[in-house]
Amino acid sequence: MTAAVSFRPGSVRDAAGGLVALTLATFVAITTELVPVGLLPQISTDLEVTESVAGLLVTVYAFMVAALAIPLTLGTRRLPRKGLLLVTLVAYTASNVLVGIAPSFGLVAAGRAVGGVAHALFFSLSIGYASRLVLPQVTGRALALVTAGASAGLVLGVPLSTALGTAIGWRNGFLVLAAGCALATVLVATLLPAVSGDDSPHADHTRTDRRRRLGIVSTTNTLTYLAQYTVYTYVSVILLATGLTETAVGPVLLGLGAVGLVGTAYAAVSLDRFPRRGTLVVHAVMALGLLALGLAFPSRAGVLVAAAVWSGAFGAMASVFQTAAIRTRGASPDVIGALVNSTANIGIGGGAALGALVLVGPGLGALPYVGAGLLVASLVVVVVARRSFPTLPE
C-alpha cells in the first residue's frame, strides 16, 4: 500500500530540491536509453554486426518500454512512489554494468532489456511525480525543468559518452554511465520528498471527453517521436557521411544538444501562458529543419545548420506532450505518465526500425524526408484537435 505522506504541492521554488533530483535522474535515464545512438559504429564493428542490427539495441529497448509501461504502472500503483523510483535507478545502474562487461551481442541485448524494464516505469513515475510536486498553474514550468534533464542527456550525456566511448572504448563508456546512475540514485534518495500516488480523477460526465483528448495527445506524441527517431537513431551515420571524422561526431552531437536546450527553455516560458501557439511553432520549425536536412545532405555545412534547427525544436517536444497530457486529466498522473512514456517509445522503437528499413531501401539521404512527412502528420493533428491542444491552460 502507498504510505501516507504529509507533503503538499507548492510553487516551483518550493519544490526546487525534488525537481533537481528528478532532473538529474531524467538525465541518466535518457542517456542510458540513447547512448547506443552515438556508439553504433563502434558497437557494430566490435560485435561484428551491421549498423542496422546494432540499431536494434534502441528498438528493442523502446518496444519493451512501450509494451510494459502501462501494465507495470497499474501493477505497482499501490507501492510507494519514491521507493519504486529508486528501484528503477538501481536497475539502470545494473543495465549499464551488464552492457559494459557483456562479451557478445546477445548478452548486450539482455543488459539493455534490464534497462528497458526500468525505463518502462521510470518515466511513468517521473512525469506523475513532477506534476504532484507543484500546483496545477505551474505544471508546465515544472515539467519543462524536469525535461531539461532529458535535453541535458542529449546535450551532455549522449555526446560525452560518445566522445568517451571513442577515446576509451564503448564498453568503458557504459561503465562510466553506470557510475553516474549510482550517483543519481543516492541524490534522489536524499533530495526527493515522498508523495502520495492516490489521485485518480473522479468519474463524471466529462470523463469520456477527457479520455478522448488524452488519446489524441498520445497519438500525436507517437507520430512526433516516430519522426524524430527515424532520423536521430542514425544521426552519427548521417554525420559521418558528410565527411566528419568519427572523433568529431561527439562534439557535433554536443552542439546539437545544446541547441535543444533552447527549445526546452521556450517550452518553460510558453506552456503556462500560450500552450497552443508554442506547440504549433515547435512542430512547424522541426518539420522545416528535417526538410532542410534532406535538401542539404550530404553538404556538411548545410546538414549542420539544418540539424541545429531540427534539434532546437525537438528540445521542446517532451515538455509539450507531457504537459498537454497531464492537463487533459484523462487519468491519474502516473497512468498518464505511463501512456506518454509508452507512446513515445513506440515512436522511438518504430523510428529506429523504420530508419533501418529506409537505410537498406531508399538509402541514407531519404531518412530526413521520411521524418519530415511524419512530423507534418503530427502538425495536422495539432491544428485540427483544438480541444486537446487548447489556446490557454485548462
UniProtKB/TrEMBL annotation:
One of its GO terms (molecular function) is transmembrane transporter activity. It is found in: Cell membrane. Keywords: Cell membrane, Membrane, Transmembrane, Transmembrane helix. This is MFS transporter. The keyword Lipid biosynthesis does not apply. Residues 18-389 form the Major facilitator superfamily (MFS) profile domain. The keyword Phosphoprotein does not apply. It comes from Cellulomonas terrae. Coiled coil: none annotated. CDD domains: MFS_NepI_like. One of its GO terms (cellular component) is plasma membrane. It comes from the Bacteria. The chain crosses the membrane at residues 12-32, 52-72, 84-110, 116-135, 142-168, 174-195, 216-242, 248-268, 280-297, 303-326, 338-360, 366-385.
